[in-house]
Write a structure and sequence with these properties.
The chain has 96 residues and is an alpha+beta fold. It has one domain. It has four helices and two strands, in the order H-H-E-E-H-H. Strands 1-2 form a two-stranded antiparallel sheet. It starts with 30 loop residues before the first helix and ends in a 5-residue tail after the last helix.
């Protein structure tokens, strides 16, 4: 297992099965954990509770993985190590 600069396991070594997150509710997933207002504050609170990488379940069951902290964000943005799927509005932007 490799370690990031801060001694944590690197993002590439974390299995999706062990990523923590709040317990999703049937049908609505973690919608109530984020809410419509104060989403940034809710994300910060969840990062403090579950750590720098956590999982959310969207209404309908899709999983999203949230990464916080500049060191981990920098690591997952390394295009040499991680593939990215750019779709929707981002795919239409110049330079994408």
């Amino acid at each position: 297992m490799t370690r990031s600069r801060h001694g944590r396991p690197s993002a590439a070594d974390v299995s999706a099965d062990v990523i923590p997150g709040p317990r999703p509710r049937p049908v609505i997933g973690n919608a109530l954990d984020i809410g419509l207002k104060g989403a940034v504050e809710a994300a910060i609170k969840l990062a403090r509770q579950y750590g720098p990488i956590y999982r959310l379940v969207l209404p309908g069951g899709a999983h999203r993985y949230i990464v916080s902290g500049s060191d981990l964000v920098e690591e997952v943005c390394d295009e040499r190590r991680f593939d990215k799927l750019v779709t929707g509005g981002l795919a239409a932007m110049p330079g994408s």
